[in-house]
Amino acid sequence: MSDVLHRLVEELSAGTLQVVDLTIPLGPDTVVIELPPMFAPSNGVSIEPISRYDDAGPAWYWNNLSFGEHTGTHFDAPIHWVTGAKQPNGTTDTIPPGRFVGPACVIDVEEAVAADSDFLLTPEGLAAWEALHGTVPRGAWVLLRTGWSRREGKEAFLNVADDGPHSPGFHQETSRILAEDRDVLGVGVETVGTDAGQAGAFDPPFPNHTTMHGAGKFGLASLCNLDQLPATGAVVIAAPLKIVDGSGSPLRVIALAPA
What we know:
The chain is an alpha/beta fold. It is built from 6 helices and 15 strands. It has helices spanning 3-14, 110-115, 123-133, 154-158, 172-181, 207-214; strands spanning 17-21, 46-54, 57-66, 74-76, 101-108, 120-121, 141-145, 160-161, 164-165, 169-170, 186-188, 218-221, 234-237, 248-250, 254-258. The chain has a 9-stranded mixed sheet. It has a two-stranded antiparallel sheet with strand order 2-3. A two-stranded parallel ribbon has the order 6-10. The longest helix is centred in the N-terminal third of the chain and has 12 residues, at 3-14. It is globular. The model has no long low-confidence stretch (mean pLDDT 97).
């Protein structure tokens, strides 16, 4: 075992490092994004028992599962968006596994989001964070801490009004800076998707998806417990299921962070 890995195991054992679960539970009550009625919807989570120590299987318990790829805490692969359709190694079964692991940059905007549910992280906001914590490094996961994961119930989580959903996200120029200038792995959010709720009316529409996936980057949605991570110094592991030609998948996102 290398010195680095040996030290990692020792620090986990000693409790000087902790494993933080950034994943919401996946079940029938998991909130799924709602699209306008002209588009095909994604199914929610269905769990069908096969057997549970009964006549159908006296010594084992297991279930059949059904859900859309982009359900709960989930991974967006480049092929998920039309701009990433021709990205090489852009599906969940072809992405090199080393690209699932990277340092976390946690940008805390909870106070701003509490005052404005349509808050966008602008380039100026990113620059202010970098002035305090250093430039976002190449290959990082940039996680937007909004407190949104503490909202209870479908109505509060989706926050839909007559003019559509209202939730925070990234300004289109910020997404471009992160994808092109900073060369990040991807971004992560606590909301149901990586674009702001009103992003369908932006130019271009849904600019975070358009920019990130067009550049071969990833997205993580419906994260939680970001308040347990420091601004820098944690490592995120976000490995999707290896679905053949998959556009994404639910996953268990974990972070290694100082205790």
